[in-house]
Design a protein that fits this description.
mainly beta; 13 strands; four-stranded mixed beta sheet
Length: 201
């Protein structure tokens, strides 16, 4: 004979047990390791005008990397060096972004130095002599010598702009005492100037 009372009690106990049990807790994915800049430095703190140096860096757990101002060849790496050619003092900023979207940055500055041996120079600018013209007016003979010159000009204008001339000689016949300014331009826009005053009696 079936014991319906016992069976109903067993079913009730099962349902009560199922209702009281907690649902399984979802497992969180392990947190990604944080992005980190291990190193960021230039090979040279100062670069001669027109020269290059290397900018080196190393990052961990980075999804993407960039350097501002933009530099070619940059990508996530534990150690890498890229070539830079700054034309003036430049502050470079490395930014690394992790898989979680977090970003870290670090900056370095590279200065610019001049190659003193390549700077334009005026070795001499002088009056070599005088003579009278057919009307009795004084004519002055002037000369100059320059180094590392790409362009040479004079003010007030006496001759057209010269290109690459290491030396020259010319004559002036001012009506009154005049100061002439000789300008010698070299690479990267460097300029040397010298003045010479011609006194007219």
């Amino acid at each position: 004979m079936v014991n319906y009372g016992a069976r109903q009690c067993a079913i009730a106990a099962f349902l009560l047990s199922a209702a009281c049990s907690s649902p399984p807790v979802p497992q969180k994915a392990p947190a990604a390791d944080p992005v980190k800049i291990n190193a960021f430095y230039p090979r040279d703190l100062t670069v001669t005008e027109g020269g290059m140096t290397l900018l080196c860096y190393g990052v961990s757990n980075a999804k993407s990397v960039r350097i501002d101002p933009p530099v070619d060849g940059v990508s996530p790496s534990l150690t890498r060096c890229v070539e830079v050619r700054p034309t003036r003092e430049t502050r470079y900023t490395l930014t690394a972004v992790g898989a979680d979207g977090q970003a870290v940055s670090q900056s370095v500055t590279i200065g610019i130095g001049s190659d003193t041996a390549a700077l334009p120079k005026i070795a001499s600018f002088r009056i070599d002599g005088t003579q009278k013209d057919y009307a009795g007016k004084t004519v002055f003979s002037l000369s100059f010598a320059a180094q590392n010159a790409e362009e040479i000009s004079i003010n007030p204008p006496v001759f057209p702009t010269l290109h690459g001339s290491p030396s020259g000689q010319f004559s002036v016949k001012p009506d009154k005492t005049t100061t002439y300014t000789l300008s010698v331009k070299g690479k990267n826009g460097h300029l040397a100037q010298k003045q010479l005053t011609v006194e007219v009696p």
